[in-house]
Amino acid sequence: MNTCYWIWYFGDFELYHAMKQNFSRIERGYGWPAFWKSEGFRNRVAFRREYYLERETAFCVYSGAVGYVLAGDKKYPFGEKIVCGPGKIKISVHAGCIETFPSIYVKGEVIYSDGTWQVEDYGNPPVKAGYSRYFTDENQNPSCWDYSEDVYLPVSVEACGGGLLYEFETELTAVLEIKDKKGYRPLRVCCGESREEALDREHCYYSWIPDARTGRCPRCAVRYAFIPDCQEKELEVKAIHQYVDIPVKAQFCSSDGLVNQIWSVAEHTFKLCSGIFFIDGIKRDKWIWGGDAYQSFFVNQYLMSDRDINRRTLLALRGNDPMTTHINTILDYTLYWILSIKIHYEAYGDLPFIEQIYPKMQSLMAFCEGQRDEHGFLTGRQGDWIFIDWADLDKEGALCAVQMLYAECFRTMAVLCRRLGKDSAISDGYQEKYELLKKNINEFYWDSSKGAYIDSFASGKKHVTRHANIFAVLFDIADKGQKERIAENVLFNDGIARITTPYFKFYEMDALCKMGYLEEVLVRIREYWGGMLEQGAVTFWEEYDPDVPEEEQYDMYGDKFGKSLCHAWSASPIYLLARYFVGLEITDPVRGEYVVHPHLEYFDTLDCILPVGDKTVHIIWDGKELKII
Amino acid sequence: MNTCYWIWYFGDFELYHAMKQNFSRIERGYGWPAFWKSEGFRNRVAFRREYYLERETAFCVYSGAVGYVLAGDKKYPFGEKIVCGPGKIKISVHAGCIETFPSIYVKGEVIYSDGTWQVEDYGNPPVKAGYSRYFTDENQNPSCWDYSEDVYLPVSVEACGGGLLYEFETELTAVLEIKDKKGYRPLRVCCGESREEALDREHCYYSWIPDARTGRCPRCAVRYAFIPDCQEKELEVKAIHQYVDIPVKAQFCSSDGLVNQIWSVAEHTFKLCSGIFFIDGIKRDKWIWGGDAYQSFFVNQYLMSDRDINRRTLLALRGNDPMTTHINTILDYTLYWILSIKIHYEAYGDLPFIEQIYPKMQSLMAFCEGQRDEHGFLTGRQGDWIFIDWADLDKEGALCAVQMLYAECFRTMAVLCRRLGKDSAISDGYQEKYELLKKNINEFYWDSSKGAYIDSFASGKKHVTRHANIFAVLFDIADKGQKERIAENVLFNDGIARITTPYFKFYEMDALCKMGYLEEVLVRIREYWGGMLEQGAVTFWEEYDPDVPEEEQYDMYGDKFGKSLCHAWSASPIYLLARYFVGLEITDPVRGEYVVHPHLEYFDTLDCILPVGDKTVHIIWDGKELKII
């Protein structure tokens, strides 16, 4: 039996669920929908496919939309058995829906729905239908994600502050279920990522009154649950952890217990932040951010190697054409979208998907093309947010770091156009733009007296930060000699302001690894991530500063509990360890080809399984012999 | 107390309800959503307003969306009393919603929501908020239209065909409610616009099984209801007629009983087809068609003079920018949209609204600009539907009738740009394009030997139909001499194929009236509309051919009951009688200025009230003296 899939207009599923995700932020009683252009799905589409039937066959179409099936020249309602053939027959399914995206499920032995169907929205040429491996049953509804569930009971209950504090073994994304053995009372439950947050009735992010009928609270991040004004232990409390089941393919086991523990906590952190999409963290925003997602693509490649979450995240971020605003309103996040596709390609060689989104890659590049200054530097439009990092960058005029990302976009486009077999004039055009931009970056931003790239030339300040210099290493804007000078004058120069965010720390460590400073990186991993573990972290935090007193560790953005304690970008040790220490370089993910450059000098023993596309490789080092299976 | 309105992103309300309307077609058990690009509303918007408060004041924001209120720098949830002032304060309300358009209701003495608020969608510059006079209470939900209701009991019940046939006094758009005195049974109800349709269980458009709990059926067009397999008269049947309450301002009473009856039935027909939007008819499509709506704009002006339904219909038809397909997929319907605004302006002088939709007028014209051939004629893009009429037109190459509509669009744009006070270069540009196109039409399409405009010049066939020649009169493409030749060679030439659709018959009669052939028009009104009355019509039909045998009168589009028996475009006698016979020409609707050119020779007496913008004029002719009050 073939697998029938629910199908929809390519991208609609992701746009719909992305809105649900981006509108799910709740803060102390009010909703906070993401503050950027939120793109709608289509409301009226037609699905089409032609068949050459050898014999008579039957099928049935299911849909929650308004519409009908046209088989040949006869119309049928949804849910009715349709018999047709033998011979050539055109099937079209017309569907309209307002509240969600129209989707259909065609069930039959010969005639059934999958990604081979065409779908049109009456505004553009037909495209291939979208589908998901999670929606293959006619009783499902693609607007409702069926989460996998695990039930957790509290590991401790403690009477304190006039109520009861429940602790779970780790942080979860869970529906709390509270049952009062005496019958329903309108209790309040205060949730916290930390004990302190749960106990702070006023400042905790989430506090709920359980539903009277079910005793359940909305799904949210929770490790501690505090129920005030509740003396007796007459409650039954459980957490129903809801998650998207994406199997982890990697295993990391070394002779270094701390590093093993860092990997393990990073893995748990990353799994929690990998739902329908890559989100930043599970407590606060829960938004799909282009910059954060870009870093998740690196980790995914070496941990879960799941191409589907990449695809969903890419479609969610990019929205519809025409492109009228930057992704998440941030110019650099627009550029990371192209770079994310590069990582997606390197990880999975997923050309069919890249072919499908190629028009959106082109239109993104065209959107940026209109925002260049007289030197060809990308400056954005008035009011555009140029982020790069929370750091003291000289942002007057065109920013060097932005040009480096932009150059890498051109290089990526050139490479992918060649891979997709596009007209060579197209890839050559991108290649030329790449080379010209790279040349101009070196001409305008490289300061040979400082031996470093400056943030910006417009102000005349010649301000040097680590950011552009890190990108110069990562994207090969700098040549070998320049890289050596950058290492000396910037990366290992204490006079240059430190990177303070874990977000940019990833790029810095990636650059250090790329340049071979592995020992330095290992020290930092042990210090920084190890430091969080010492503080009792069960998931890695959005930010960690060992110098901050313990009672202020949860403070961020001027908010007492503003810091997210389970944040995707803090899972980056997985990538660094797998890519540079175990040294796995994937050379052909489709064929499962790879090269291993292991740095065994840091471990007495090592036993790792890492994914290579759909396959895995097992790397074993017993201190004497290296086995790769 | 000021009126607080529910507000939303300008146009969203109309796009949402238009989808509901266009997806409401049901045919013998299956849904048939309109087959054109259906445009979504926005999902994430921010409403903003700044106040200078003399003293402290309180307000509260209501919304079904996810979001919060930002007053100054403090955030509040919806539904909470907010106190602020005195002094300057910025209020912004953030709202996200997936299933419907986000809307808010701000209630307060000083701070309250109305059309003065700004709203933005994060993709375009802020615009003025949309609102409706029908939504002014915080307990309403702008996604649900609260219809006015009247209950109708059947005027007769008849046992026939093994069941019971209920007749209502006229055609309705009603929810049938069936109560079985013995308790609920799953009865089937077959509805019909005609007795024949209701009795035909197989071919009637609507047949329902009433809801078990309420005994109610979905809202649909119904004059007859047949309940098969039901012998006893143990049922209670009523029809709950649901309508949008738009008051009729006109009254027509002449000495000619037949004409009075035609007016009255046309009025009833038109009211039924004037709901949230102007729709074509109430049984079959129930879709918002640009060509049909254009004709409704003429009737509305002289019957209800309701500017709001025009506004709603214009916004619903046009959709969002960028424009990528023709309105209803039909090139000429795109052009009627601009011409509808012309009629809207002439009827209401509604410059504030026209200013709001001006960007969409501009982008529509730009969309068409890209579809002109080497002579500047509008030909559309490959696959575009060029309709004009169901008639044997020579459609090879650029079609004359299309160019005439297009020329009128340029003239309209020139006029409205001047009225809106746009830069004179803009209006001059449109004026020049108008003049050039008009010149070229006369050069390429006027055949002086035939004394008529030909359909097309590309084929060399020099085919003459009435259509372009009617437009030449209506839009003054023809000069006085040409018009006279058109009358002789086309309009009164039996050798030229007759107009067969009531749709185009309206343009023909309008042209005849414009040229002074009133007697001819009156004869045709009495024959054609009088003919339908003789057939027992209680509403006017989509089409009527006296030569068709009675048993085939309901047949259309190859469907036994395909003909709509209550069709908006058949209400045109109202416009013709008011505009040309009573002779009311509105010259300044804002000030209530008009000119009356009455043709009293056709009536012994006349007592008419007609709207002039928001005012009315009373015209009384007692056979001797004419009074205008």
Ordered list of secondary-structure elements with their pairings:
Two copies of one chain form a homodimer.
Chain A: E1 6-8, H1 12-22, E2 26-27, E3 30-31, E4 44-53, E5 57-62, E6 66-71, E7 74-76, E8 82-84, E9 87-96, E10 103-108, E11 118-120, E12 127-128, E13 130-131, E14 148-152, E15 156-160, E16 163-180, E17 189-192, H2 195-199, E18 207-208, E19 220-227, E20 235-243, E21 251-254, H3 257-272, H4 290-303, H5 307-318, H6 331-348, H7 351-369, H8 400-419, H9 424-445, E22 446-447, E23 452-453, H10 466-474, H11 480-491, H12 502-514, H13 518-534, H14 573-581, E24 584-588, E25 593-596, E26 606-612, E27 615-621, E28 626-628
Antiparallel strand pairs in A: 1-10, 1-13, 2-3, 4-9, 4-11, 5-8, 5-10, 6-7, 6-9, 11-12, 14-20, 15-16, 16-19, 16-20, 17-18, 17-19, 21-26, 22-23, 24-25, 26-27, 27-28
Helix pairs in contact in A: 1-5, 4-5, 4-6, 4-14, 5-6, 6-7, 6-8, 7-8, 8-9, 8-10, 10-11, 10-12
